[in-house]
Amino acid sequence: MGRVVVLGSLNVDVVTRVERLPEPGETVLGWSDGRFAGGKGGNQAMAARRAGADVTMVAAVGADDAGTAYRARLERAGVTARVEVRRDQPTGSAIITVDESGENSIIVVPGANHALSADDLGMGPGDVLLCSLEVAPDVITQLSLQAAEAGARVVINLAPFAALPHEVIALADPVVVNESEMRLLADSDLVPASLLVTFGAAGATWEGIRVDGIRVPEGEVVDTIGAGDAFCGALAAALARGDDRPAALHSANEAGAAAVRWAGAQPDAAL
Asked: What is the residue range of 126's domain?
């Protein structure tokens, strides 16, 4: 069984609840829901760990209480943390608004995430590198090429959408996008060799393999924050243990459905 190396962001999520999401230019009243561990990288690393993988998190935080708390959280979860501490940047943050139906809008302030530097990951055959795009694209490019050359599998969650070099997109197995990211990808000149598209509650497809969404009763949906990250982390864990595409897709689908049942991007994520 290989390990999962997650290259991505560590953010502190500040969550506000509202009756409904505001329209452009509109002000609505809300109430604070707390401060939580988040960031696509951290969410994915914790999801891969919950799925039983040996996980290494490669990230950067600020020299502040948020960064200290997050590193301690990773350690408690059994995630190996290769986390740079930057004194010139704060820990990344996200301002998240969640409405009564569980839908959300998110603004990310990258902070230390964009100061992450590239380094040798020491990967090899059987390992899986999972990347998302809340860190600098040139770091993703360098380490993805390095991992592939070492025989590791590269999975790229193209979120938030940004154009990566053609050779990086071509080597990923798979590139993971949701519906909106899929449209942006279609409008670009990037052509993945392996494409996995998630459709939220409607399921997902991967090169002709389809899984239907898992119905979660409306009363059990807390919010949808981090559901896609849970999907990606569980997918990487399944691939690292050698599952084939249908089995890995099924495991990821189950993890994504489970993630809507708790508040925030990770379970028990208060910082």
From this structure: 4-8+39-83+114-261
